[in-house]
Prior knowledge:
This protein starts with a strand and ends with a helix. Helix content is 47%, strand content 13%. The chain contains eleven helices and seven strands. The strands form two sheets. The chain has a five-stranded mixed sheet with strand order 1-2-3-7-6. The protein is an alpha/beta fold.
Amino acid sequence: xxxxxxxxxxxxxxxxxPPEALWQEIMAGLPFLAALDADEQIRLRxxxxxxxxxxxxxxxxxxxxxxxxxxxxxxxxxxPILNLGLDYYRxxxxxxxxxxxxxxxxxxxxxxxxxxxxxxxxSGEAWDGGPLLISWRDxxxxxxxxxxxxxxxxxxxxxxxxxxxxxxPLPPDLxxxxxxxxxxxxxxxFCAWVDEAAASDEETPFDPYAAENPGEFFAVMSEAFxxxxxxxxxxxxxxxxxxxxxxxxxxxxxxxxx
Length: 258
């Protein structure tokens, strides 16, 4: 792994602004960022600058770190906390960027107490208290409902109060019981939808991986919340409302304002 410190975001008291042309290129290339109004774009840029000053990027697999990689990940990763603040990404520093999908060793204990070890191909991974791992190839696929950066950063938010179970730290106006009920009913409905779609060889508008568990459901639906909010709002209006209450954003209204 090779750590590269790029001059324009090296750790300092006052974050250095990223190159203007590069920032505009990244914003224009990602529709869900281009949809932000002028004030939101200014605040996002400020968050991204501070994020880059606080976090440390590392590469693996021969990938050469660049300004574009760092700034693109920072911009996408800071979108969920646009109205929450950088403190929501406290407790961890590292981001490891791979050129493509990577292998993660896993182990699981069965009901008999036997531990089985295996390897899993992943496009992203968020470690509780540890680094965040991202496939750059997958990060470049952002823009049409699939966003590995937002997915993994959503896991980090979910982990702020323990395991990634789909219940992040909620504001006072979002009671935990009400959140859990909407999460459970939406998750159960989606799992049934995935089963029906598989049986009829059809596709769902959301990544079937969301049916893995409630934590993955929260992360995948966070992707949809920011990238395809109109679809999420139409299919799961209560879930959309809860996510809007948590993130303190209404991405669907940005589509209407275009």
